UniProtKB/TrEMBL annotation:
The keyword Transmembrane helix does not apply. It is an enzyme of class 1 (oxidoreductase). NCBIfam families: urate_oxi (TIGR03383). SUPFAM superfamilies: Tetrahydrobiopterin biosynthesis enzymes-like. Keywords: Oxidoreductase, Purine metabolism. It comes from Amycolatopsis oliviviridis. Pathway: Purine metabolism; urate degradation; (S)-allantoin from urate: step 1/3. This is Uricase. It holds the Pfam family Uricase.
């Protein structure tokens, strides 16, 4: 029996970076979590402990901070591309790099040049892979919490001896959107594209009369692809944040879709991919979201 070393990578995870760019009295804040991973001919360090080809994870962390000083961070996609290309171009034995960035939003407090309030749990994300002279960019968002109090139904599903869920023609529909979209082409305005994809997701969720969360998922992805030609495919994960009617009959009260119990768990989890049939080959694009 032969034992061999399989795919591997290493890096510095979750480097916290906050930058303040000053334009006179007006300050601009960036709050990021950056993770870097490097790939290449790294058999020696695994098999013999020879670290001659290992770019220390501390060096990777320091590079993140130095790059943030040497030039404005800008859009997270551009920052991730600069970091990834630096590692691959600077070290002959490093053949690939993966850079993941989460951007934590802050809103300027009205009337103040340098005071901010945190935007909430929603994060803007990007995942960039550099390999063999190519770059793949997958961007997205996490924890975009949405709810509509009507315009949603759920009925017609199979029933058996274990089914207790009542059918409904009017329910609250709520979810926390996790979305990833793969870019194709060049010259993309990252900020505009992200803002527009987010707008389309929100508007479609609100406008689409939903017979199931699956139907809503497809409609959201389809709408993005119809309006944004730079997006090749969209992946969505939508936990169903259930709201159940409270039985008020013991108190002699009628509950006409007015009082609900918001359940924390368990929850339904609806996931899916919507893609163009003529999209470019994704290559390594989705590997940026997995371990290898």
């Amino acid at each position: 029996m032969a034992i061999t070393l399989g795919p591997n990578q290493y890096g510095k995870a979750e480097v916290r970076l906050v930058t303040v760019r000053r334009e006179g009295s007006v300050h601009h804040l960036k709050d990021l979590t950056v993770s870097t991973s490097l790939r290449g001919d790294l058999a020696a360090t695994h098999l013999t402990g020879d670290n001659a080809d290992v770019v220390a994870t501390d060096t990777q962390k320091n590079t993140v901070y130095a790059f943030a000083k040497e030039a404005p961070v800008g859009e997270i996609e551009d920052f991730a591309l600069r970091l990834g290309r630096h590692f691959v171009d600077s070290f002959e034995h490093i053949s690939g790099a993966r850079v993941l960035i989460d951007e934590h939003g802050w809103n300027r407090i009205s009337g103040h040049d340098h005071a901010f309030s945190q935007a909430g749990s929603e994060k803007r994300t990007t995942a960039v892979t550099i390999q063999d002279g190519q770059a793949w960019v997958v961007s997205g968002l996490d924890d975009l919490v949405v709810l509509k109090s009507t315009g949603s139904e759920f009925h017609g599903f199979p029933r058996d001896g274990y089914t207790t869920l009542a059918e409904t023609n009017d329910r609250i529909l709520a979810t926390a959107v996790t979305a990833r979209w793969r870019y194709q082409g060049d010259g993309i305005d990252w900020a505009t594209s992200h803002a527009e994809v987010r707008r389309i997701l929100l508007e479609t969720f609100a406008d689409k009369h939903s017979l199931s969360l699956q139907q809503t998922l497809y409609a959201m992805g389809e709408a993005v692809l119809k309006e944004r030609e730079e997006v090749a495919e969209v992946r969505l994960s939508l936990p169903n944040k259930h709201h159940f009617l409270v039985d008020l009959s013991p108190f002699g009260l009628k509950n006409d879709n007015e009082v609900f119990y918001a359940a924390d768990r368990p929850y339904g989890l609806i996931e899916g991919v919507v893609l163009r049939d003529d999209a470019e080959d994704p290559g390594l694009a989705w590997h940026t979201l997995a371990a290898f």
